[in-house]
Each structure stands twice: as C-alpha cells, then as structure tokens.
C-alpha cells in the first residue's frame, strides 16, 4: 500500500463525513420547517383562542385571520335591536339620505305629517307639548298652539279641514281647525294614545301594544282592530304611524326600526332599519329615539326624524340584497 492508497482511504472517509454532515444538516432543516408553523407566533393564538374567545384581548389581536380560527364566531353577530324581531325572514330594507333639513332640537316629536307643502308636528312632554306647523326647508315653526301642562301630546293626523291630536295617558284627544289651530272639540278613547295616521277612510291609532285601531273619523268610534305580527310574533310598542302607498309604517319605540304593515292582516311585510341615521356629531346634546314619519304623497317623499333630533331627513328605502 502506497501513499496513493492511504490518500484514497482518507478522501473516502472525508467524503463519508461530508455526506453524513450534509444529511444531518438537511434533516435538521426539515425538522425546523416541520415545527416552524406550529411554533410560530401566528400559530400560538389559534391554539389559545378557544379558551379566550370572549376575551377582549383575543378579539383585539392583530392576527391575519387564521383560516381555522373560531374568531369570526366570537365577534359576530351584533345584538338584534330590542323589539325588532324578524325571525319570520321578513325582508329588512336599508336607506339612503336624500336631503337633510333642520329640526327644532326642543321638539319631542310624537306626531309628524306632511300636507300641502308644510310639515305638521305634535310634540310631547308635560309642559312642552304642542301642535306646530313647520316650514320644511328651514325647520322654522310658523304656527303653534301649546297644550295645557297636564297633557303629554302624542300622535297627530289631518282629516279634511281638521287636525286630530292624541295624548299619552289622559285618554283625551283634541280636534283643531287645520288653518287656525283653534280647538274645536275634545274626544275620549279607551286606551293610551301613541301614534295616529289616516288611510283616506279611517283614522288609525296605536297605543303602545301590538294593536292598531281603526276609527270612523266623524264619530271617532273604533270600527276595527288588528294585531300586528311579524310571522306569528306580535310586534309591540307600535309608536308613530304613517300611511304610505297602501301600507302603514310604524316606528317601534326605542329601536331604529320601522315596521311596514299590511293594514288588512296586520302582518309586517318588511322592516326598515335606520340605524346610524343621526350622525354621532349630532348627538352632542341629549337626543331621544327615532320617532316621526311623514309622507308627501304627491312628490312621493318620505321624511323621518326623532325626539329632540336637530335634523329631519328625507330618505329613500333600499331593498335588501
Ligand atoms: Ca306620521
């Protein structure tokens, strides 16, 4: 054996060592990759989310939405507005603001009507209740009569040359001359008074329950009554009303929703969700709930506002989907 044989042996050993080292190194790299995702910062929150899904910290995590994370279930759904049950699959309309007008922020709106170019508004609260004629564009009160302090004014409706106004719990309504606002007479009814409108044949009244009452406009007798339901579920707290193209629109007290009701059956045929209508910037002073719907049947304009809201909106409804 000469030097060349020894050299070949050494080279062979070196080659074996190099190949072995290379294989070991590659193996470590594979293991590193295999454990990389499980051990990465991304993977850790996925593992702890099930126990922490209700934690605000977990919800606030800036994770790039891991595909199998249960986070989406934890952040949805938003609570359903109280009273706005639509388990029956009733369509919910959205809205688009067409025009914005000023509204007296001291008006606790309980009744709203559009007639012959002007708004008529009934306001509530004891000592602050009134009937007003209002210029749409400016919000300026053109004419006003105040109720005696003991009365809490509610819904209003126009009928021929008269204006009817309900009161909340006194079970007394007032009838005014439409032009002069002079008080013509009082009338009595058996329930609380909330909303009022008319369909060309009857006055239609709500009382805070799920019932609507149809009154003969001259005798003020209740001639019919219907319970409003969404599917099988009664819809209570019906508030301000407006008759719009064959349907009765009703504010649902303490919600951002309007029910569109079939007058014959009482069924809710659609909801309108007005959430977000009054911008946060307009909530600097105390404002109350959405209330007040008026319809200009000639120009087909729909107006809505709220109690003590500084603005009144003309809106268009947007069908779902
Ligand atoms: Ca109305």
From TrEMBL:
UniProt keyword annotations, A-Z: Transferase
Keyword Transferase: yes
Pfam families tied to this protein: Glu_cyclase_2
Gene Ontology molecular function: any one: glutaminyl-peptide cyclotransferase activity
Source taxon at top rank: Bacteria
Key word Transferase present: yes
Annotated PANTHER family: GLUTAMINYL-PEPTIDE CYCLOTRANSFERASE
Protein name per UniProt: Glutaminyl-peptide cyclotransferase
Protein species of origin: Litorilinea aerophila
């Amino acid at each position: 054996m000469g030097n060349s044989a020894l050299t070949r042996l050494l080279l062979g050993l070196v080659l074996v060592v190099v190949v072995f080292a290379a294989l070991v190194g590659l193996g470590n790299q594979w293991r590193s990759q295999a454990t990389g995702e499980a051990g990465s910062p991304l993977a850790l929150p996925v593992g702890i989310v099930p126990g922490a899904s209700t934690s605000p910290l977990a919800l606030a995590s800036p994770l790039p939405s891991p595909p199998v994370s249960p986070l989406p279930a934890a952040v949805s759904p938003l609570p359903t507005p109280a009273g706005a049950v639509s388990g029956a699959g009733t369509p919910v309309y959205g809205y688009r603001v067409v025009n914005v007008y000023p509204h007296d922020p001291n008006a606790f709106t309980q009744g709203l009507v559009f007639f012959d170019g002007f708004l008529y508004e009934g306001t509530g609260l004891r000592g602050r209740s009134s009937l007003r004629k209002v210029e749409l564009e400016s919000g300026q009160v053109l004419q006003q009569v105040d109720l005696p302090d003991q009365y809490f004014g509610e819904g209003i409706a126009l009928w021929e040359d008269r204006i009817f106004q309900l009161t909340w719990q006194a079970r007394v309504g007032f009838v005014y001359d439409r032009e002069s606002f002079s008080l013509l007479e009082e009338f009595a009814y058996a329930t609380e008074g909330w909303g009022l409108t008319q369909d060309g044949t009857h006055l239609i009244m709500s009382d805070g329950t799920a019932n609507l009452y149809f009154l003969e406009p001259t005798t003020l007798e209740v001639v019919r009554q219907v319970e409003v339901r969404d599917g099988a579920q009664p819809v209570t707290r019906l508030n301000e009303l407006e008759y719009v193209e064959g349907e009765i629109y009703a504010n649902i007290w303490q919600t951002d929703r309007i029910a569109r009701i079939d007058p014959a059956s009482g069924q809710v045929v659609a909801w309108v969700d007005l959430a977000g209508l009054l911008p946060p910037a307009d909530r600097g002073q105390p404002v109350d709930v959405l209330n007040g719907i008026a319809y200009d049947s000639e120009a087909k304009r729909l107006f809505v506002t709220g109690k003590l809201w500084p603005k009144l909106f003309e809106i268009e409804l947007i069908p779902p989907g």
